Amino acid sequence: MTDAQALSAPDRAASAAAVELFRGAATALISDNLDRLPGLVGLRPFHRGGALAGIALTVRVRSGDNLAIHQALNIAQPGDVIVVDGGGDTSRALVGDIMKAIAESRGVAGFVIDGAIRDSAAFAASDFPCYARAAIHRGPYKAGPGEINVPVSVGGWTVRPGDVVVGDADGVVTFPAAIAASLITAVRAQEAREAEMLHMIGEGRYDGRYGKTAK
């Protein structure tokens, strides 16, 4: 296991700048402007509330084994999101309250787990973002193998180290920092169109044509 593919300083700076552009942006609008591609399907929020925005620190694990996640936490930087490819296996939890506490102490922005968690009540009482497939009491193995900072698949969607990660009550989307400028322009334009539509509906002027102004 290695962190040899960790982001360079310029790449990390670009990802961090992109994250700031998308704080508060709705995942639904981001998804619409990613051509409605499938994204990280099947995950749901387990935390009390609050949005997620950060930089992907990717981890691939053997089903039911969280050794690599512990090692990722050892190298995590503030603002990282631990994105775990657990193969969708929900037979054993990959993170719980202790790992949440470690992550929070290190400034990690949240967890995205293609697998299960435990201590779900602790997550439900917290604003630390956590998205996963399920909760289960059974604990993980800690034998490995695993990989850190490699492309991973979460719900059929490829996430790469340094991708921008945004989450809200609707779920999680990710995308490369290189497209952030054009993507946020499209998202803001859609926000404006939808705000105008809601205004028109409130005034009784909406004629059912998306993005069109009623006469």
From TrEMBL:
Keyword Magnesium listed: yes
Gene3D superfamilies from the UniProt entry: Ribonuclease E inhibitor RraA/RraA-like
Name under which the protein is recorded: Putative 4-hydroxy-4-methyl-2-oxoglutarate aldolase
InterPro entries (alphabetical): RraA/RraA-like, RraA/RraA-like_sf
Claim: S-adenosyl-L-methionine is one of the keywords in the record: no
Cofactors demanded by this protein: Mg(2+); a divalent metal cation
Pfam families named in the record: RraA-like (PF03737)
UniProt GO MF annotations: metal ion binding
NCBIfam families, A to Z: PRK06201.1
UniProt keyword list: Magnesium, Metal-binding
Binding residues for Mg(2+): 119
Binding site for substrate: 96-99, 118
Organism name: Methylobacterium nonmethylotrophicum
Domain of life: Bacteria
